[in-house]
Design a protein that fits this description.
The protein has one domain. Helix content is about 45%, strand content about 15%. It contains 9 helices and 6 strands. It has a 6-stranded antiparallel β-sheet. A hairpin with a 2-residue loop joins strand 1 and strand 2 (about 95). Helix 2 (about 15-25) runs antiparallel to helix 8 (about 205-215). The protein is globular. Residues about 95-105 have low confidence and may be disordered.
């Protein structure tokens, strides 16, 4: 295990990190502690990526998925990878190719999008003051008490633009027939509702707070350049 990975493991094991994570996400401390403990015990976090910033983003994504899974600690190591492996089914108002034919699209996973979300949030924090501000939202949902089908959504609001939503699922979504035969010409997300019975949603303020926490609490990570830029401004 690299020095950076050891530092991340030491951080995630502290009650102070878990306590602040719970506060920022507006969740019960026990819920966060159980999820983090389960990932550490299973050796899922910290990840082995040699790039510390990328490794930190991956760890942050898995922590968020584990916390949001809302399952018993002994089931987290089994359920969280299922959320990570969900594939993109709807991008904005456009179904992904193959989703209607029952063939899951390849190469775009929920994990990859969450990791990119963490990196992009840190990059935006270091960008010039006039850069567009993105508000982010994430949800994890399930179709029944057994989690037969899992869903995930990522919302992005950018100044001057409408909300953009990406929908992920553990199985190909069977979309209802579209008026006129083409979903591309209607507001799909205003008409289609996921067949979910439960879940959790992370709204922009708590989610951004958690992303910031993951970066700022580890030395020599994605937060370091931000500290450098702030130091120059003083």
């Amino acid at each position: 295990m690299s020095i950076d990975a050891k530092a991340r493991r030491k951080l995630f094991a502290t009650r102070s990190f878990r306590r602040e994570a719970a506060q920022r996400l507006n969740l019960d401390f026990a819920m966060v502690e159980g999820a983090v403990n389960a990932l550490l015990a299973a050796g899922i976090v910290p990840c082995a990526n040699s790039d510390n910033t990328e490794g930190l983003a991956i760890d942050g994504a898995w922590l968020l998925m584990a916390i949001g899974s809302r399952v018993r600690p002994d089931a987290i190591a089994r359920v969280t990878p299922r959320f990570a492996e969900m594939t993109l089914q709807i991008d904005g108002d456009t179904p992904r190719a193959g989703s209607r034919a029952g063939v899951p699209p390849h190469g775009v996973t929920f994990e990859a999008e969450l990791v990119a979300m963490f990196r992009n949030a840190w990059n935006a924090a270091r960008a010039p003051a006039l850069a567009p501000f993105d508000a982010l939202g994430v949800s994890l949902q399930w179709s029944d008490g057994r989690g037969s089908v899992l869903f995930g959504t990522i919302d992005c609001w950018e100044k001057g633009r409408p909300r953009h939503r990406k929908v992920f699922a553990s199985h190909p979504l069977q979309l209802p027939p579209a008026p006129g035969g083409e979903w591309d010409f209607v507001h799909l997300l205003d008409s289609f509702r996921l067949p979910a019975v439960g879940g959790i949603a992370f709204s922009p303020p708590p989610l951004c707070g958690f992303i910031e926490l993951v970066a700022k609490t580890v030395d020599k990570t994605a937060e370091s350049p931000l500290k450098t830029e702030r130091a120059k401004e003083k």
